[in-house]
Amino acid sequence: MVKLRSIYDSRRIWKMVFVAVSVILVALFLYISNRLVTDLAIQERERMEIWADATKQLASTSNGNETMPDQQINFLLSIIERNHTIPVMLVDANDEILLHRNFRLPEAIDSVSPWEISEVNMKYLKEKLQKLKRSHNTIAIPIDEGTTQYLYYEDSTVLRRLAFFPYIELIVMLVFIAVVYFALISVKKAEQNKVWVGLSKETAHQLGTPISSLMAWTQMLHSLGVDADIVKDMDKDVHRLSVIADRFSKIGSKPEMELAFINESVVSSMEYMRSRISKRVALAINVDHSRNCGVMLCQSLFEWVMENLTKNAVDAMQGEGNLTITVTGSASMAIIDVKDSGKGIARKNFKNVFNPGYTTKKRGWGLGLTLVKRIIEEYHGGRIYVKESEINQGTTFRIELPKVQQ
Fold first, then answer.
1. DSSP E strands, 104-207
2. How far apart are CA 211 and CA 247, in angstroms?
3. C-beta pairs of 343-349 under 8 Å, 24+ apart in sequence
4. How far apart are CA 385 and CA 350, in angstroms?
5. CB-side neighbour CA atoms (13 Å) of 35
6. pTM for the whole thing?
7. What confidence score (pLDDT) does residue 6 get?
8. Residue ranges of the chain with pLDDT lower than 70?
9. Of 136, 142, 168, 320, which has fewest CB within 10 angstroms of its CB?
């Protein structure tokens, strides 16, 4: 098997490295953010345990189980009063609400005593209690033998907001990475376009001088009485070189488009190729005369497309097989299928075949299909892709060109 060659291989490696580094950075930032949220949650838990301990000591004092100085009582009360951020609810064993703080009640109220709570607020707190009981934010407070109160609390507003921060951070980083990634691709594509244009125009320029010289030589041969048929064949080849140079000169600049009928354009291109491919290749051209629609074409570039596809098909069949060109259409598109009976293309390479440098041949640069794609999609506003392919069964390339609406 011929080893596939592609100049994109090294670029793929750099893309993979970029993606890998991006994933590592995202994972690192997420870890740090989650760690921060966890640490804050632990701190709030510790604050609630201190709050619960202060509540326990105050309850023991009020029940007469122990006495403590007024200064210590005031200190314990200040611990309870200083909680302005964490929603907390104290209930007894029967789920009677003894105390609540920092909940956003439906009806504004300053009192924290349950017997002064409105029915609307009481209903809200009861529903909130049921939700809190399903959470892990619970602290049991043993007051005395046979008496236990329960402290339920929610995460503070800061902690709840911070809990969403890793996801926001993830989205922002993914967007940033995507922007950078596509910016790099755009820069690379722009650089490739400059190379394509420069290479094409330089090729056209370099061909110009020998073509002019060959034209002069054919005229001289004709004047010297050389066999007219020989001179005529040379003229054809020189004309062919002129057409090729003209095609290269059009790369990078907007070509002149003319209205053409797709059937005639395809037949003309393929009839030219019929005498220039192996006699062991059976060429069939099927056109739907009822769908002979008009399209805007640069005829010389379109012929280049058909020639490239034909040559690739003949190479894939190793000069022997069946090549079928079918022209049909849809409501908005003219459709051209180029089907061969060659060695086929693996599904994973359906898109890779259009990459510069991709080739299965020992000779060649692997630029033909890249030029074909550029001509069809960028200059003609159409589409070309591998419609279907099976290994050792053949391949069908499909071209879609927009119709000229009548």
1. 138-144, 147-153
2. 14
3. 343/316, 343/317, 343/318, 343/391, 343/392, 344/316, 344/389, 344/390, 344/391, 344/392, 344/393, 344/394, 344/395, 345/386, 345/389, 345/391, 345/395, 346/389, 346/391, 347/389, 349/4
4. 8
5. 6
6. 0.52
7. 46
8. 1-12, 59-77, 79-81, 108-116, 188, 190-199, 201-202, 205, 247, 250, 252-253, 357, 360-366, 406
9. 136
